[in-house]
Specification:
This protein has 266 residues and is mostly beta strands. It has one domain: outer membrane lipoprotein receptor (LolB), chain A (Clam), CATH 2.50.20. Helices cover 11% and strands 41% of the residues. The chain is built from three helices and 14 strands. The protein has a 14-stranded mixed sheet, covered by helices on one side. The radius of gyration is 19 Å and the shape is globular.
Amino acid sequence: MAALLRRRRLPSRGLVWLLGLVVLAGCPPFGAGRLGPARETTADELLAGIEARRAATTSLRARMRLRSGLARMWVRQAVLVRRPSAIRIDVLSPFGLALALGTEGRTLWAFPPQQGVRYEGPASPANFARLLGTPLGVEDLVDVLLGVPPARVAIERPALDRTGDEYVLTIRYRDGTQLVHYSIDTLQITRIEERRDGAPPMEVAFSDYQDGFARALDLKGETGVAASIAFDDVERNAAIDPTAFEPPAAARVLPLDRAAAAPAPS
């Protein structure tokens, strides 16, 4: 069975093993349609559109597939997201729940029920990178999963340029720059790039829009694609009980950094 169901020492390269529990068939590539006529726009209009989308979608309940970590295999998951900083992901196998992980914004926890142990630690960008293989922190990841760029406070007036078949909105903020790419015909966001002083570059690609919501995401860090997400069933602005993001009861609680070294049960 999956790695958590066999007794052995886990790889030392972090916790991405937690998401390699169930191997599914790969998804077909997401196609792109032919471009229509370019739409005129301004930086102010695009910024207003981001804020309108951020205000319009405050939570999400969805089924999705995620491909992350070294194995690059698709895993079925159920996900709950709520602004500003709450996420829960249940990794599913043919036998039921294989792993639950989540945060309410302060503590990041992982609970493989076969072990009866809960691992937890600060909800820091470093722990999110180790656990999910994503370069994003929790509030930034909430924004991305809800379909908008991570919120940034501009230190100068944002600039808008056209590059080929895209508009590029440049937002300079303290210690970094965010580039938001738009399709020139639909004005849908296609890609976000972030370049922060002293940190690796980060990129998120959005595609497969349905009803104005991107059903496919690719998160890229310094070494390339870190995680790919494909949403199947999506319910926006779902009513979610806050207790869903609380860590489940467990017989033992260990530090999150112990998970990569702990032997899994038979």
